[in-house]
TrEMBL record, chains A, B:
Protein name per the record: EBNA-1 nuclear protein
Location of the D-glutamate N-acetyltransferase-like N-terminal domain: 40-125
Superkingdom of origin organism: Bacteria
Organism of derivation: Rhodobaculum claviforme
Domain D-glutamate N-acetyltransferase-like C-terminal intervals: 131-328
PANTHER family for the chain: DUF1611 DOMAIN-CONTAINING PROTEIN, GLL3100 PROTEIN
SUPFAM superfamilies: P-loop containing nucleoside triphosphate hydrolases
Matching Pfam families: DUF1611, DUF1611_N
NCBIfam families reported in the protein's UniProt record: DgcN
């Protein structure tokens, strides 16, 4: 089920660093998985890793070639194909979060069958998930919930994991989207799960654990985003969180992709998400606020966080700008 | 896409009336679709329709043979198969809500291909639904929301449709589960839709309509049922309801299938569902309460409804026992 590590990061002909953000995520959050990079002519991205041939990667113990770059026009080009086929022949698995699936490419599917290698298309579930039973699980769980989509929920959870591990706490980031799955090698592609099994897939992802272990569950969507709110509620009820972190991007003028919809206040998010979370776990609390201040000046960012902290009475930080330590402190106090 | 009507209702070897509840639903709610019934030896269900051979059904203009009975042990028996194959050969389509799909039966699939007939497995979507865009649609929409699963949401909506049509109002029951889809010949099997497309499938199901037209949307699950709450929220946000009817079964001791979970109060349901609905439609109101008093005495049922009505200040009826007229009155006043 899980993707075998370590990885060779395939950057292809990435026109810029942004196109290779999956590779960057692996490099940032699981550097121990990122042994080398493979670049085609014209590639403008660089992870600062050794450029390796397939043979060198094999020698270095690589198990999987991960496509760490978005493809242009939704096509897997012939230039890519040549490398991917060769990688299968050399004994590597392939992993991809592309919309167009590796398994749907006849040549890749045939070579994978012939060589006995695995094609990991992390956008589609590979597991038959159960229906959620709501039974209380041991261990602790934190879920990042947002006022909107794409406000920093994944970053918040994975950055908290790092600090917790540095402190010797037991913590596991639990990926629910394709980037997170490629970074960690495992997870649930929740947006592609069949409706009836959404909450069950999150129970499956965050099973019984040691009493002092924290699952840091990657949030998806928002209770207030009409396109994806059902996915969010399934996460809240399947995740049974003990703690919520509220995530927000203050400069957004409307919900992502929904021009007619304004963002809820952090108070609305707090009250709504907490009430819903307490259906599954009456002990759930909100521990802090994570603000994405990327579009703000340092002074504005600090002032905004201070204002929210005073207003909500919760530690409020931008985990990129300030680090997530204060959120971890709050979690440790639960 | 839609199932062609009218129907011949296949009752098979139903051991009792309950096993044929899909057929009963069609008979009750779309009698104009139910031309005849087909029973095998030993069948103990009877819809009070003419027993017809396939030839007689053909003569009577039937287009589709609908499997109106649950099968035992999850197998389509040889006794059934013989009839189903013959029906395809005679030019009928087949429609089924069984868990095991018609299309997965090699013989049925092959005969359907050879005869050019359609196998409608209504448990699985046949449409590529869009992602919800949240744009306000014309026409009006009512959604039934429940304190729990299986508390009478489908019955409430379809019973209201009948009364509204009798009054000359424009009303369409919109099915979101397999029984409702077989009854009406169309709908969205929401529990089988991919997470990202749930809300979009409901937008698709309830498109722009005349200003005085009501869609009566079949509810699913409950915001308070941790296994299925995400499906419910997608219905609320995709449906953009103008009106909610609260559905409740007062004798239930815990959430269906979740022994550790008690039911929310009607007040909790009202406040939570309304707040969520107003994200998509700020004008949404709660118009009434539908109580399933099946397990109560007439006196207890009346007393309970009166008590709820006084407490919530909303018309409160059991649509089976009292009829849904007062809920329709409330809807007409919106």
């Amino acid at each position: 089920m899980s993707i075998q590590t370590p990885y060779l990061l395939f950057l292809g002909d990435a026109p810029d660093a942004l196109a290779a953000k999956v590779a960057q995520g692996i490099r940032d959050w699981r550097p121990e998985f990122a042994v080398g990079q493979f670049r085609l002519e014209g590639c403008r991205a660089d992870m600062g890793l050794p450029d390796m041939t397939l043979a060198e990667a094999k020698e270095a113990g690589v198990k999987t070639l991960v496509i760490g770059v978005a493809n242009r026009g939704g096509m897997i080009s012939q230039a890519w194909k040549k490398v991917l086929v060769q990688a299968l022949e050399e004994g590597f698995d392939l992993a991809s979060g592309l919309h167009n699936l590796l398994r749907d490419e006849e040549d890749l599917a045939a070579v994978a069958r012939a060589t006995g290698r695995t094609l990991h298309d992390v956008r589609v579930p590979s597991v038959k998930y159960p229906i959620a039973d709501g039974v209380k699980r041991t261990g602790k769980r934190m879920l990042a919930v947002g006022t909107d989509c794409s406000v920093g929920k994944m970053y918040t959870a994975i950055a908290m994991e790092r600090v917790m591990r540095e402190r010797g706490m037991k913590a596991s980031f639990r990926a629910t989207g394709q980037t997170g799955i490629l970074i960690t090698g495992d997870g649930v592609p929740l947006d592609a799960v069949i409706a009836d099994f959404m909450a069950g897939s999150i129970e499956w992802l965050t099973p019984d654990n040691e009493p002092d272990h924290w699952d840091l569950i990657e949030g998806q969507g928002s209770l207030f985003h009409v396109s994806y709110s059902g996915v969010t509620l399934a996460l809240i009820h399947g995740g049974q969180p003990d703690a919520l972190v509220l995530c927000h991007e203050p400069t957004r003028t409307h919900m992502r992709g929904l021009p007619g919809y304004s963002l809820p206040s952090l108070e609305d998010l707090r009250d709504t998400a907490l009430a819903m979370a307490r259906v599954a776990n009456p002990a759930c609390v909100v521990v802090g606020v994570s603000v994405n201040t990327h579009a703000m000046t340092p002074a504005d960012a600090d002032a905004y966080c201070a204002e929210v902290e005073a207003r909500l009475g919760l530690p409020t930080v931008d985990p990129v700008r300030h680090g997530p330590a204060r959120l971890v402190d709050a979690l440790a106090a639960v």
